[in-house]
Write a structure and sequence with these properties.
The structure holds 2 protein chains of 2 kinds.
Chain A (H helix, E strand, L loop, with lengths): L1 H16 L5 E7 L2 E4 L2 E8 L4 E6 L5 E6 L4 E7 L4 E5 L4 E7 L6 E6 L1
Parallel strand pairs in A: 1-4, 3-9
Antiparallel strand pairs in A: 1-2, 2-3, 4-7, 5-6, 5-8, 8-9
Chain B lengths: L1 E4 L4 H18 L4 H8 L17 H11 L12 H4 L46 H10 L8 H9 L5 H7 L7 H12 L8 H6 L8 H11 L18 E2 L26 E2 L21 H10 L18 H12 L17
Antiparallel strand pairs in B: 2-3
Helix pairs in contact in B: 1-2, 3-7, 3-8, 5-8, 10-12, 11-12
The chains are: A mainly beta, B mainly alpha.
Chain lengths: 110, 346
Amino acid sequence: MKTRFYALFATLALTISGAHADDVIVDQIDKTFVIDGTEVESLTVSAGDSVSFRNSDPFFHNIFSLSATQIFDLGSYPSGESRSVSFDKPGLVEVECAIHPDMYMTIEVE
Amino acid sequence: MRLNNRALSGSECTRPSVWALLFVLSVMNLSVPALAGRADYQRPDIQPPPANNQTTEARVALGRVLFFDPRLSGSNWISCATCHNPAVGWADGLATGIGHNMTTLSRASPTVLNTAYNKFQFWDGRVRSLEAQALGPIVSDTEMHQDMDELIEELKAIEGYRPLFDAAYPGEGISASVISRALAAYERTLLTTDAPFDLWVKGDDSALSDAAKRGFALFEGKARCSVCHHGFNFQDDGFHNIGLPSHGEQDPGRYAVRPIRAVMGAFKTPTLRELARTAPYMHNGAYNTLREVIEHYNSGGEPVEGLSPMMQPLGLSTQEIDDLVVFLDSLNSINPLTETIPVLPQ
């Protein structure tokens, strides 16, 4: 009963605040960025969304951006791990892998 | 969320036929895993030249002459071939290069063989194209120490060059852009030829000794070399700090191009082809023999700032190191690319 109450409360709270942030999963496969099995070079998200970069290669990747819109460095992480970044400010974000810089994509934050 | 897809890549297009081949081979009871490995090492196309520098005979001919012409340097003493000498694997046989006024440089001269396959040029990958690379050493203070405007005037004054430039780039005259494009056009032709390993990849089982085959299995397995050295050119267009010993200050390497902690002291993965002719090895010429190189990896590298987390002690036995050396020897061209030094225009 208590659990049901909390679930209802949480749903109401989300509805009232209107908060609905997406989390997009971007895979790293064969040194490319992949979403739902398709290689991508750009992506558009809404401010407040987050993107999880999942390393599905058998070696390390290191996703970062030095764009004026948003600077981040997710560090080096091995196969099977995922690291996430939230995008709060509208603008263009260039994303690269520090280890394999041919891995490059842009994220347009609206 | 909206996303833009890339066109289907070449490797994806060929994948079904590879699987079909593997199915046929498995029915024939052949060694499927080994052959799947071989498919990854077939010679690919080179990186496509830019639209304004499609390869032509005249462009390659001009680039060849420029490559061997010491008048490209400020001293008129150093040509591209001084450090990329065809007699020593298109490198220079030195730990690190020697530049203007006999200055000892901080990095080794890499072979120019197979640079046409690379997506990044220079040890730190600061440019992508061979065209952009070609001018770097010419105008570098410590390397060829040339003033580009002066060079253009010097070349314009050499009558014998005029027909070569006119044939290669009609109506464009002599400029930095034309010089760089001609050099790049020539460098795109500097490729390794079949090594014993390539014959094995094509299906000749007798092309590799048992030791070389054991070495290749280690290369892809326990020794984990193929994590970075993979594909036909045995490199990954990637940048790694492998914990090399260094004397004095650490060279920041890729960090100077992209100030990200993971690439402090990282350098581009070099090709493993023609190693017999390109010692000493590593970006700073730290090792003279392949055994020393493998022993370095076996140790896990020195604990320097930026050391790649992929560097781990390998626990290779002496026999396993021997086998890896034999395998690496199988990557040398059977008939290496040779070149005749051209007569320079006057």
